[in-house]
Amino acid sequence: MRAAVLHEIGQDKLEVLDDVEAVGFGPGKVKLRVRATGLCHSDLSAMSGVLPQPAPFIPGHEGAGEVIDVGDGVTGLSQGDRVLVCWLPACGACPSCKRGQAHLCLAGLMNAGTPNFKRPGGDVFGFAGTGTFTEEVVVDAGCAVPIPDDLPYEIAALIGCGVTTGLGAAINTAQVEAGSSVAVIGCGGVGISAIQGARVQGAAQIIAVDPVASRREAALRFGATEAVSPDEFADAKQRVTAGEGFDYVFEVVGKAATARTAYETTRRGGTLCVVGAGAMDDFFQVNMFELFFDEKRILPSMYGGGDVLRSYERAIALWRAGRIDLAGLITHRVRLDGINDALDQMRTGEALRTCIEI
Predict the structure, then answer these.
(1) Which residues of the chain have pLDDT under 70?
(2) Residues 258, 185: contact at Cβ < 8 Å?
(3) Which residues contact 304 (CB under 8 A, 6 or more apart)?
(4) I need a surface site. Which of 86, 141, 286, 344 has the fewest CB within 10 A?
(5) CA separation for the pair 153, 37 (Å, rounded)
(6) 190: CB partners within 8 A, 6+ apart
(7) Per-residue model confidence (pLDDT) at position 176
(8) pLDDT at 130
(9) What pLDDT does 110 receive?
């Protein structure tokens, strides 16, 4: 079986091999044939060591495909079913699930420490317990979510992570109000999805902030009312909000520096929503006086908050109704052999989302 493998954390290239085997199939598991997968910035962060992940590993967590086989005890799934991959499935029994915060369930992430692939040289892990840069993968049944027949695999894959994360940040976590002012810092696939979520919620002004000109141009197509470079952001704050600051600012980069900029451009009493996944040694700082006096809400948003299955359904409904554009997020397409070109396109900001057809 072919798969793209990172041998050591810190390497910037993947090796496409044909001696990989998906393992771990049994009760409660399903085996999937991956048909399409997106390249998410979190995959790069895991490769560089920003996000913890044992190696060697197969990146990819934003995938879709069909069920090859179903283990004992699995209900609701059959061979041939079309599914998307949920990298953070809810167990339904832990305290987070019982509180209605299924997106904070850690049961699925525990699988990240168990190899679900092997090669002649030893075990290979799958990123976040999945690993979709491969032809086949074995996952918990909860990771395989059935999708309707009219949903293309490449769009379903995006809903499995980036779209759900961005839309959910605006709709579930921040709960953007109609008529409000919004700024989004970082306009890759997740940031563009946050822009679309703010538009769906009825935001009056949506300012996109990104250093890459092509991404700023894309943001305008997806609903931003203005797009500026980071150097122009302070001027946009002055013009759009008379210097007061935005009602909502979304940080979709995962850096303390941009989070601090986001905090400073949020109005008093406004909402800073942190969407980017950053490093454990990168510290965001506020002083105790401003924290008290400005009463700005700081809301982290993991996987878009809320119930992810409901978020999937909402994204599909909005896509069907033409309220959001998901096909337009895919700016590049490659086969598995072109994965390293796709990594470079993500690093430079050339791509919003690359679809890897497997």
Answers:
(1) none
(2) yes
(3) 103, 164, 165, 166, 167, 168, 169, 171, 172, 173, 311
(4) 344
(5) 8
(6) 40, 41, 162, 165, 166, 252, 275, 276
(7) 98
(8) 95
(9) 77
